[in-house]
Write a structure and sequence with these properties.
The complex is a heterodimer of chains A (417) and B (91).
Chain A lengths: L6 H8 L18 E2 L1 E4 L3 H13 L5 E4 L15 E2 L6 H14 L2 H5 L10 E5 L2 H16 L5 E3 L1 H7 L15 E5 L3 E2 L2 H14 L3 E3 L4 E7 L2 E7 L2 E5 L2 E3 L5 H7 L7 E10 L9 E4 L4 E5 L5 E7 L11 H14 L8 E11 L6 E4 L5 E5 L9 H14 L13 H4 L14
Parallel strand pairs in A: 1-12, 2-3, 2-13, 3-9, 5-15, 13-20
Antiparallel strand pairs in A: 4-8, 5-7, 6-7, 10-11, 11-12, 14-17, 14-18, 15-16, 16-17, 19-20
Chain B lengths: L2 E4 L3 E4 L4 E5 L13 H8 L8 E7 L7 E7 L4 E7 L8
Antiparallel strand pairs in B: 1-2, 3-4, 4-5, 5-6
Classes of the chains: A alpha/beta (417), B mainly beta (91).
Chain lengths: 417, 91
């Protein structure tokens, strides 16, 4: 890898006032033809290109990004990583990702600031307690670490939580996955971009796809704002805009795109050293390394591509946060933003072939795709390279909406959307 | 977040309404005759348009009546509101 990052390169560059660092990835113009083209330069798309080049020896590939690397949902999420999903198929998928996360900084030679600070999911009513205990058992049967904590143990693990039983939704306990945590979201995109670029992948920014050319049931190329690009394989990883790309190919997907909001507070000294999520009151919070509280809100309840979000959604989330953490009552919120998420009817993703040869979709991650980034890229690369799904993503095919074999994580999600 | 002109109640805040998704999807007349593909198409597949979209809304915290709306999903601008059973306007 060119320009390997290490303590020695840091010292060496210090002598030249850090003015001679090379660009981490290039800025090429598109070639006429590629072996495969990935549409979408977010974390999932870049990871797909990285693993296509690394594990499947496909070097003549391009990633097309309509904006800039890390400017979409990759840079807009709340950076939470966990794998404590209920169903076997989901547990396999998300834990595959978590295992890659654990060595990703070393593999990419890029500090993605992966921090296994634990993720705690709270229960606020009897049904929550039953559901979360069931999930704990299911996780352990799948080899995923999970423990049940009673109210006192919740307080010990995160002392600022209000465990008064007099509040509207009292804390009755919670689950803890200690291997879960957070990572620096845009560093993940940058690390994969740098790694893919070093293996010869063309990362083409400011290049929007305008059409998909097909000959019967075989793709032939893409119309883009930078001209026509010929290719036999197209992997679409366009998140909230997946349906827009699908419509270009004459396909319909079982997706609805909605704005999902997050917000951060002014930075303060370390106060919360884990991630706490609560489904019943819809609030989740962690603290970034800069000291900001990172708070995730819900989705707007209607289709929109506006990348904003409604004020009432934020208001509801902050009400819940204040009841659970009265200590935050005088904190000021610094920034708020929205990202467009593509939600499947069963709240599980689609990593799948389509009935058009050479057209593959990796979409439907909805409100929780960041955690799966490395695993998603790895499995999607396998699917594209072999024209067959890997056994870990076989259940996440598009055909499940016809067969009825859904992976229903809606009721099992950490927070409902 | 926007203001919706309910055809029965007039202008109200969007928070009073709930969205029922894509409009004019007709329930199959002969469900028993349907193939799995046709069921999937009816139940799950959506246009999910970025741009002008026809959709159903319910004034959940108001008159509780359903109606249709034409809205641009790329900027949340509402082009038309019309009652159930009325002919969709040409936009």
């Amino acid at each position: 890898m060119k320009n390997k990052y290490s303590i020695f390169s840091l010292i060496k560059n210090a002598f030249s006032q850090h003015e001679n660092w090379k660009q981490a990835w290039g800025n090429p113009e598109p070639k006429k033809e590629y072996e495969a083209v990935i549409v979408g330069g977010g974390g999932h798309g870049l990871a797909t290109a990285y693993y296509l080049a690394k594990k499947h020896n496909m070097k003549n590939i391009a990633v097309l990004e309509k904006g800039w690397i890390g400017g979409g949902n990759t840079g807009r999420n709340t950076t939470i990583i966990r794998s404590n999903y209920l169903w076997d198929a989901s547990a396999g998928l998300y834990d595959h990702a978590l295992k890659i996360w654990e060595n990703l900084s070393q593999e990419l030679n890029y500090n993605i600031m992966f921090s296994q600070r634990g993720v705690m999911n709270l229960a606020h009513n009897l049904q929550d307690v039953r559901d979360l205990k069931r999930r704990t058992h299911a996780n352990r049967l799948n080899g995923i670490d999970a423990v049940w904590l009673d109210t006192k143990q919740v307080k010990e693990f995160c002392p600022i939580i209000n465990i008064s039983q007099d509040i509207r939704y009292p804390v009755l306990g919670g689950t803890l996955q200690r291997r879960a945590g957070t990572a620096r979201h845009d560093a993940v995109a940058w690390g994969y971009a740098r790694g893919a670029d070093a293996m010869g992948v063309d990362i083409i920014q400011n290049c929007e796809v305008k059409g998909i050319k097909r000959n019967g049931y075989q793709v032939e190329g893409l119309e883009t704002t930078k001209g026509f690009i010929k290719t036999k394989k197209i992997g679409v990883v366009a998140a909230g805009h997946s349906s827009v790309i699908a419509n270009m190919a004459g396909l319909k997907l079982p997706l609805e795109s909605k704005p999902l909001q997050a917000l951060v507070s002014e930075p303060v000294k370390p106060i919360i050293d884990t991630v706490v999520m609560s489904n019943a009151v819809h609030a989740y919070v962690s603290q970034s390394d800069k000291g900001e509280l990172v708070i995730g809100a819900g989705t707007d309840a209607y289709i929109s591509y506006t990348q904003r979000g409604s004020h009432d959604v934020v208001e509801g989330t902050l009400k819940a946060i204040l009841e659970l953490y009265p200590i935050f009552s005088r904190m000021k919120m610094l920034r708020q933003w929205g990202g467009i998420v593509d939600i499947c009817p069963d709240a599980s993703p689609i990593i799948s072939k389509t009935n058009i040869k050479g057209l593959y979709f990796n979409c439907g991650w909805g409100t929780g795709g960041f955690k799966a980034t490395p695993g998603s890229g790895d499995l999607f690369a396998h699917t594209i390279a072999n024209d067959e799904p890997h056994k870990l993503n076989a259940a996440f095919n598009l055909n499940r909406f016809v067969s009825g074999d859904l992976v229903d994580e809606h009721g099992a999600a950490a927070v409902a959307h | 977040m926007f203001i919706i002109n309910c055809p029965y109640c007039g202008e109200r805040d969007q928070i009073e309404f709930s969205c029922g998704g894509e409009a004019h999807i007709v329930r199959p007349k002969q469900p028993t005759e349907l193939s799995d593909d046709e069921w999937a198409e009816y139940l799950f597949m959506r246009k999910n348009i970025k741009g002008v979209q026809f959709e159903r809304w319910n004034h959940a915290h108001g008159c509780r009546k359903w109606f249709n709306m034409v809205r641009d999903t790329s900027n949340d601008k509402i082009h038309a509101v019309y009652k159930m059973g009325e002919k969709p306007p040409v936009i």
